[in-house]
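Q: Sequence in, structure out?
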Amino acid sequence: MKFMKIGTRPDTFYTEEATRSLISDIPTDLVIHIKNINYLLHKFPLLPKCGLLQRLCSDFSDSENVTIELHDIPGGEDAFELCAKFCYGITINLSAHNFVPAFCAAKFLRMTDSVEKGNFIAKLEAFFNSCILEGWKDSIATLQTTAKLPDWSENLGIVRKCIDSIIEKTLTPPAQVKWSYTYTRPGYSKKHHHSVPKDWWTEDLSDLDIDLFRCIIMAIRSTYMLPPQLIGEALHVYACRWLPDTTKLRLAEGSTSQTEEAIQNNKKILENIVSMIPADRGSVSFGFLLRLLCIANYLGVSPMTKTELIRRASLQFDEATVGDLLYPSTSTTDQHFYDIDLVQAVLESFLALCKRMPPSAAETSQFMRSIRNTGKLIDSYLQGVARDDNMPVSKLISLAEAVPDIARPEHDDLYKAINIYLKGHDDLCKADKKRLCRILDCQKLSPEVRTHAVKNERLPLRTVVQVLYYEQEKSSKVTASHKPTPPQELNFGAKLTPTTTRDNQGKQWSGPEEELSKEETTRRTILPETKERDKHKLKRSDDKLPLELERKAVLRGELVGVESDKGKEVREENLPGIKLDAKKITTRASSKGRER
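A: Exactly. Output:
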């Protein structure tokens, strides 16, 4: 910060009750009333320099005591006292912090060169142009003080000149920055970094009022000289400086509460920040957008602001990490810790954008990679929130079901989330367990997870039987695929000439010209029909367990209904093509019986 020292006489002003005067042998003949303070002064040092006081005292003789009221002087009594001390020749120190009130008061008192050469205004203007506008922090500090005298500062051109100076320095290439600046990023040290960072200006600008900050940011954006990411970084720094930290709201709940004025001010800041975010994708991070959305819910901002934040966050949802999503709920009615509704709102907006994509874009490998990464992200997030003791099972199911099948080629991560939830919620009723496990597709589990699921005593028996069924079905397919091929299909000695033939359904197929035997022809024709008939016999229209498998399972040599809670005996029937492992089910039933 730069300073200017004017005057040489010592400060002899003193206060007595509500009166300010100075030590002097000469009796005072001028009284100045400013609000609740009276100044007892002298005409001879003030009138030659103050054109306003000259005019107001012109109707009085030189010997008369004059009383003048200056209640509307800009800057109040402090600014007037600076001007009075200048007139007396008393030493004053001018800086960026007191320049604005002093300059406005001097203009009000008409302390121009036309009144007396070398007057106060001329000295203040010289200091403003040569010191304040040439400095980085001085310009910002001066601009901050204009908030107390906005009209005067605007009319006198102080605001415009400070903003122009700040913008000019902000657009300066980092290699040419020679002035001091504030940069306190974690892990950054000027001793180890000799080059100036690209965002060197963001922290100092965050000290400004939101209206002045917006004015500068919009002016910088209009030049198109800085990348959108730098603008986004400035918005991020400003938000961290002024907006509440939602991650600490739960800890401070009940101890302190924001006043209505503070809430309204934060709403204004948030809405301005959202309106200033560049339209370019990636100008701000997904984590920053979700943080703003969380704060928006806490402050209760306009629905339009929330909708815009959800839209912007959904555009970058595929860039998110689990840490970005784990925000605490700010609702006073929620017992659970994590704000799962916030994540679901963004996910649904993301999926709505995907549905509106043209078919050509939706079929690309990039899109498939993005949608599957999203599914994996949600399953990992579910594993995190499943540890919340107060998380309702309905919210967990709702978010899990919002993920489309195409985004979940395998269900291992979803199984882990379900298992974590069941482990931490022992009091979950049987019906809720079934609802939770119904979202699991046992066909999409890896062999390792299926092995774990069969031994998992927390899962409903119905789910375990499903896992067993699909495990054995896959084992049957693997066994069938390793059967030796009949010799007539591997006739390497014969010369095979491709030819086109029609099958029993009229479809064309390419095969060897060599004629098939009667037995082979019969096998190829009848076998698919038999398999199809068996498949229909097993499959149910509601995509539940195969009908016959759902009715019974072998337990310790007895036949027990799968969904029967009382374990009623049922007649044993042979399952076509499926053999359940009696030992696995017997072990599970025994452990269940011990629990009861």
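The two ends are 78 Å apart (CA to CA).
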